[in-house]
Amino acid sequence: MCIDIVLIGMTVNSLVLAVGQGINTLLKLSAFVLLLHAYVSYKRKSALFWSLAFLVDALSIVSDIVSEQYGLAIFQALAVSLLFYGAFILLEEEGMSPSQPYIKNIAGLAPLILTLYIITYYALKEGANPSFDELALMYGIAGFFHFFTGALLFGLHGVYMKRGTYLAAAFMIYGIHKMDYPFLRPVEWFAPIGFILGALFTLFEVVLVLVVVSSDEFRNLNRPVSQVDFKEGVMIISPREYPKIKEHLRDAPVLAFLRKVKEAPENWEVYFITKVAGYRSISPTEPEKIVELSCRYLIEAKKKGISGVILLDCIEYLRAYNEFISIAKFLSALKDYITVYGGTLVLVIDSTAWDEKEMGMLKRVLGVEV
């Protein structure tokens, strides 16, 4: 009787384990297909690296199913290398890359090189035979880099807001779960639970990756930008001149930060400057987000060999929430990006709302004739 109960328990465990592994594999393969489609559609290299990461991760599960421990370790290391490198590429695409490009190359290859080094040691050393513990430890190391990928992605909050934060948290949580593999995989009763948890974490991770990839911020980075016959640099126009400029730019994908968003042309990429939290809204107390978005927009325009146009019709509103010196620094930063990457910065300013001294200082900061 006791033997029968034990056998039934073992059968249930094996069944749950197989279900967990199957769901995990299916989710990763689905993510591979969807991310590959995103790469083909939007030409974002980060989507390509992440699609390959999920494909290779699925192969690591297959290796575990057939008890091919070398395959498990190598595929896990390669998957997390692709994931880690893809995170650097995404940050680079958003204008937040490390100052030295070689850093991402070294960091991205680190988990794979480390794993191959350990495996090579056991392959070449006479009489050496890696046990499950050593190979599982390599899996745990991959989990650490998975966790660190999430830490890197916290830098996306300024672009993707809460979606970027949730995605970073999902990577970190799944990384922690992978790090417990060397400790809990040999525990027979926990192995099925571990794979079910892995399937749930994978589901959350895949859903959040797809939410980010399908967002306007991700898709529009590579949107074609039309050439506009504006002189590069900074333009200050009055509210009376704005309708004419708006009509001239109607068909150009302008990056605009406005108060009157309903009046903007459909082809513009518009952000609402407001204290009310919502989709594509930026608080007037956070002008640095305007700078971040402008930077990545100008970088992409320069890659295409053309000039972008950034338009702000909210300066007086920003002034109401910030000290004048903060506004001057903010506009100076925008002007510097225009200088470095090219393009045109159009500022709609009502000169009657500023005193003469402030207006003169703004023009000097922006390099506009006084």
Explain what the structure shows:
- With 370 residues, the chain is an alpha/beta fold.
- It has two domains: 2-220, Rhopdopsin 7-helix transmembrane proteins, CATH 1.20.1070; 223-366, 3-Layer(aba) Sandwich (Rossmann fold).
- Helix content is 66%, strand content 7%.
- It has 15 helices and six strands.
- The chain has helices at residues 2-42, 45-65, 69-93, 102-124, 132-153, 157-160, 162-179, 181-184, 191-213, 216-219, 242-248, 287-303, 315-321, 324-341, 356-366; strands at 233-237, 255-258, 269-273, 281-282, 309-313, 344-348.
- A six-stranded parallel sheet has the order 1-6-5-2-3-4, with helices on one face.
- Helix 14 packs parallel to helix 15.
- The protein is elongated and about 80 Å long.
- The termini are far apart.
- The relative contact order is 0.09.
Topology:
Elements: H1 2-42, H2 45-65, H3 69-93, H4 102-124, H5 132-153, H6 157-160, H7 162-179, H8 181-184, H9 191-213, H10 216-219, E1 233-237, H11 242-248, E2 255-258, E3 269-273, E4 281-282, H12 287-303, E5 309-313, H13 315-321, H14 324-341, E6 344-348, H15 356-366
Parallel strand pairs: 1-6, 2-3, 2-5, 3-4, 5-6
Helix pairs in contact: 1-2, 1-9, 2-3, 3-4, 3-5, 4-5, 5-7, 7-9, 12-14, 14-15
InterPro entries: DUF835
Protein name: DUF835 domain-containing protein
Transmembrane segments: 15-40, 47-66, 72-91, 103-124, 136-154, 166-184, 190-213
